[in-house]
From TrEMBL:
GO terms for biological process: defense response to virus. Keywords: Antiviral defense, ATP-binding, Helicase, Hydrolase, Nucleotide-binding. The keyword Translocase does not apply. GO terms for molecular function: ATP binding; helicase activity; hydrolase activity; nucleic acid binding. Residues 10-182 form the HD Cas3-type domain. Gene3D superfamilies: P-loop containing nucleotide triphosphate hydrolases (3.40.50.300). This is CRISPR-associated helicase, Cas3 family.
Length: 729
């Protein structure tokens, strides 16, 4: 008799049980072998558990009723019996006990449970009570069939996790799930033929980057500021660092993007690392950084997209039909957002967690780290940063032009003793770099709330080109629409995550060209905080809605960037909710701190960054939910951690705005790169209110107006204008 793991689909035949189990086991072994040299502890235990769990994970599929469906004898959307419970029962049996194997098998489709809940279940922990007795009765029969099909020889011993338990368990689940998902997707021809991964080749890429910088030095202006940039590059490149976590406090225009990449490549070569992550703020535009890295780091004969991966937002899917669309961390250099990166570290969802095992042995550059995470998430993030540095050979660089040293704040570090975080560049060079910041810009405020029309008239009275940053996607779109309608489309540009990555890239290129025309000054860029970091743009006058101090400092880096003007201004303003403009409640507390600084006539300087965090915590504290994050992490309450760790406190979904791509999705003819470039993220409650249709597995199709100016907000703004602002979005 032939036993199956997956059923026939269209012209693709069934996959046999033995083929799938052996395939998952082989991939699991490979994943563990790749990271074992980076695991400072528990690598042997990781190998033993993966061997056992991967071999037994689908034992329940051998159940007769399940086999009838898999063989096509009976038709059913789901298997009649929960197939994971047999594997759990196998490893909770006193003859071959392995609680860790049982736990990871139970979790390989649904994620881990909260372990405090499982402890309260006693002998029923990790079991499916509804079928446990039936499974127990047939377990010996299933074992016999399995032993006939698959060779299974395990090593048993004490299962003591010596490192951080929660991170170890996530790493374990990541290896099993990715092996399972990849083998399944490969069988169903969702993946192209597997190729050898592109290697980091750190020394070669560093040499190429050196040549690029040397070329710039020869062709660029030989002034004091460029000389300092070159000095910054050399200092970062040659920094002798042995710590696992470092920081870099460098001002606007100091060449941080390439200087720190040189440092990361040098450290990767020294430490034998395999991958580099560049993590940008959660609302940031990443294309400019990607373009720089692809231009400077790709070696002859390589495909740029395979070397530098561009991940705009999370695209994680559970179903077999959509698994191939998941964005994995397999490129040697990955540029992504804090949402995608840190929420993966917190994840309990198997579709997201499957990429976690690619993180050990990586250098992680958290660029503009002041804006990477809200203050409430910093305590648990700091714990993870330390664990991955100490136990999984990750090297971290926390960098910003307005660095807040959050690791010096006891409320964030908790009970752990303070460990100094060394700087990559010394104080003397940092002071010389900061000289150019002293007189570059002056800060002003007008805190009287303004509605759409009054705000537009006020802004238009200042010299341009002007940069305006608002705190919500809706406010930016509404103000941009007003400018276009009353001053002319040629007088305004709009940039936010309402646009697809492709359209954001096109808009950014148009903005760069407009800024090069020094005679054309009467225009305004209206944007969200996505423009605050990682983009080399320079405006005449800047405006930012009242928000966090560090966001104001970063926004000012897009005004008079090179310091060529003597009287550049950066204004802080407040909006009046008028049915169209919308406040961001998530920034209320940080905004209140900045307002106090203005009212107290405090000087707005980068040195105030850490103090602003301390003041926010002193005034408002950390909510009970977020205080409990660290506790729940220690208790392995995985579902609570995933639920409470939200960089953006909104449940968003992937929405495809291109109708032809939405149609192709239904036939499985779109890869994740193309999907990301033609999609946006929209809060689920908005999609529900607008009755946006779902294409497949949490992927939606936008059914309102979309254009390259306002993005998906074109349809929403039109609805709100038509209803006089009565529609609440």
């Amino acid at each position: 008799m032939i036993y199956y793991a997956h059923s026939r689909k269209d012209d693709i035949p069934e996959q046999t049980y033995a083929e799938h189990v052996c395939g998952v086991r082989s991939r699991g072994r490979d994943y563990v072998q790749e990271i074992s040299c980076y695991a400072k502890c528990d690598n042997t235990l990781l190998s033993q558990i993966i061997e056992k769990a991967s071999t037994i994970h689908d034992l329940g599929k051998l159940n007769k009723e399940n086999q009838d469906v898999l063989a096509g004898k009976n038709t059913a959307k789901f298997l009649p019996q929960n197939h994971v419970d047999a594997g759990v029962a196998y490893f909770l049996n006193s003859q071959h006990p392995s609680v860790l194997s049982a736990a990871v098998i139970q979790a390989h489709h649904v994620g881990f449970p909260d372990f405090t809940v499982e402890v309260d279940r006693g002998d029923a922990a990790f079991r499916d009570r509804a079928i446990a007795s039936d499974v127990d009765r047939e377990l010996s029969e299933l074992e016999a069939i399995h032993s006939h099909l698959v060779d299974s020889q395990f090593e048993y011993g004490e299962e003591e996790i010596k490192g951080d338990k929660s991170v170890f368990l996530r790493m374990l689940l990541s290896c099993l799930v990715d092996a399972d998902h990849t083998d399944t997707a490969t069988h169903y021809r969702k993946y192209p033929a597997e190729m050898s991964p592109v290697r980091l080749r750190a020394a070669e890429r560093l040499a190429q980057l050196d040549r690029h910088i040397a070329g710039l030095k020869q062709t660029g202006a030989d002034d004091d500021r460029n000389a300092l940039r070159n000095e910054m590059y050399v200092a970062c490149r040659n920094a002798d660092i042995d710590a696992g976590i470092t920081s870099c406090d460098s001002p606007v225009g100091s060449g941080k993007t390439t200087a720190i990449m040189a440092h990361l490549l040098a450290q990767a070569e020294k430490r034998g690392l395999r991958r580099i992550f560049v993590v940008l703020p959660f609302t940031n535009i990443i294309k400019q950084s990607v373009d720089i890295y692809r231009k400077t780091l790709v070696l002859p004969g390589e495909n740029a997209e395979e070397v530098v991966a561009e991940l705009h937002h999370r695209a994680d899917f559970e179903s077999k039909d959509a698994r191939h669309l998941t964005a994995l961390w397999r490129a040697p250099i990955i540029v992504t957002t804090a949402v995608a990166f840190f929420e993966t570290l917190a994840s309990n969802s198997t579709a997201a967690l499957r990429r976690l095992h690619e993180l050990p042995g990586s250098a992680v550059f958290v660029d503009e780290s002041h804006a990477a995470l809200p203050v409430k998430l910093l305590p648990i993030a700091w714990k993870w940063i330390n664990v991955y540095a100490a136990e999984w050979s990750c090297y971290w660089v926390l960098a910003s032009g307005s660095l807040n040293r959050f690791w010096t704040i006891p409320e964030i570090t908790g009970d752990e003793s303070f460990h100094p975080v060394p700087e990559i560049i010394d104080d003397e060079l940092r002071k010389r770099l900061a000289v150019y910041e002293n007189n570059r810009i002056s800060y002003h405020c007008d805190l009287f709330p303004k509605g759409t029309a009054e705000l537009a008239q006020w802004i238009s009275g200042f010299p341009g080109p002007r940069l305006v940053i608002l705190n919500t996607v809706q406010s930016a779109a509404v103000l941009a629409d007003y400018f276009s309608e009353h001053f002319g489309r040629e007088c305004v540009e709009h940039l936010s995550t309402a646009l697809t990555p492709d359209d954001r890239g096109n808009t950014l290129e148009r903005i760069k060209k407009r800024l090069m025309d020094k005679k054309a000054t009467n225009w305004t860029l209206i944007a969200t905080s996505c423009i605050e970091a990682g983009v080399n743009l320079s405006f005449r006058t800047g405006f930012r809605e009242l928000g966090p101090l560090v966001s104001l400092l970063q926004a000012s880096g897009r005004v008079n960037r090179e310091g060529v003007l003597d009287n550049a201004e950066m204004w802080t303003f407040c909006i009046l909710e008028d049915g169209m403009l919308k406040l961001n409640p998530g920034l209320k507390e940080a905004a209140a701190v900045l307002k106090r600084y203005f009212e107290g006539n405090r000087a707005i300087v980068p040195e105030l960054s850490t103090q602003s965090l301390t003041d926010e915590i002193a005034l408002y504290g950390l909510s009970g939910k977020h205080k409990n994050l660290v506790t729940n992490e220690k208790l392995q309450n995985f579902r609570k951690v995933e639920e409470d760790f939200k960089v953006i406190d909104s449940d968003t979904r992937l929405v495809v705005v291109d109708p032809s791509m939405a149609k192709r999705l239904q036939y499985g003819k779109v890869d994740w790169k193309k999907l990301q470039k033609a999609s946006v993220q929209i809060a689920k409650y908005k999609l529900d209110e607008l009755r946006t249709p779902m294409v497949m597995d949490k992927i939606y199709r936008w059914n309102l107006e979309y254009d390259g100016f306002l993005g998906y907000m074109a349809g929403i703004v039109k609805l709100k204008k038509y209803s006089g602002g009565a529609i609440i979005i």
